[in-house]
């Protein structure tokens, strides 16, 4: 498998490029609209063709590039079937892998951050979205989030994967790139080292996080598979403006 991890700095989002070397077909997991030119350049440089975009959930901190990439390349849009988005071409469900060339993308319903959240297993990698981060996890206080559901999603589903499975999250805010199931089970301060459900619920209830500054624009835009709102305030315009410079060059 051809693999690239790409970083969007405005929302600290990781987009993952997966390519089938036999067919030349590619998948983008969690593409961001303001970095899609960088992603398309990477696909072209690798001699691939974008077949499909896959989102882990309805994002609250950026606009997905799924719709714009479909317009530009003809790629299909895949997302959790749970959310029943009319703009989706392939609704992902557990037990029904998405096949793109030689790539098999197997979904795991991992609610808690949002009720429709999915993680995706591809070979020895799991793309955990916001359900499981490196030494952390996504918040559970909006979009039908639920701390108890997230605890069970991580401990019963993600931690049940082989210890050597590589964990690739949707975000990292400290420059880290990858973890493993063994590492998160051992040392994740919220969910690892045998944390109980009661302990986890107390941790999440005590976070006192601020209201997400882009959520009111991002959620309706992402329910339409990636529509940037018109007349964004100047301080939010950066979420939809094409990146002038990419950390990947």
TrEMBL record:
Coiled coil feature spans: none
Domain Metallo-beta-lactamase: 12-171
Alphabetical UniProt keywords: Metal-binding
One example of a Gene Ontology biological process annotation: glutathione metabolic process
Matching InterPro entries: Metallo-B-lactamas, Mito_Persulfide_Diox, POD-like_MBL-fold, RibonucZ/Hydroxyglut_hydro
GO MF entry, a single one: metal ion binding
Protein name: MBL fold metallo-hydrolase
